[in-house]
Prior knowledge:
Elements: E1 2-13, H1 19-23, E2 26-36, H2 39-44, H3 53-66, H4 72-83, E3 89-98, E4 110-117, H5 118-122
Antiparallel strand pairs: 1-2, 2-3, 3-4
Amino acid sequence: MDKIFLPNLAFWGTHGVLPQERKNKQKFIIDAQIEGDFSAACASDDLNDAVDYSKFYEIIRQTVEEESYYLLEALAGAICQKSFVFPQAQTVRIGVEKVKAPIIPTGIPARVEIERSRKFYEKDK
């Protein structure tokens, strides 16, 4: 399986359960990975056959910065689901880290990782 990584992406968003988390932007670090068969892009050297990294990045940025979720799991799941816009994608793995989780007194980051396959979403059809 071929893989594309977009690691350590930093964004500011309003995700969390507490009122102050939904009002004041916090820093989130996203690690993103798409797995699939990229042999067509390898053979053609054509962006039309590839997962466009800039579009993948924009899906992540828009979801983190312009939407709001109570749970990190829901944020990661939304990014996963939207990433299947790329037909080559078979599996998407998203890690979301809240840099300063307010419920942890020492400011230790909280992190979740969600992995979904295309089959996960197709089972509902």
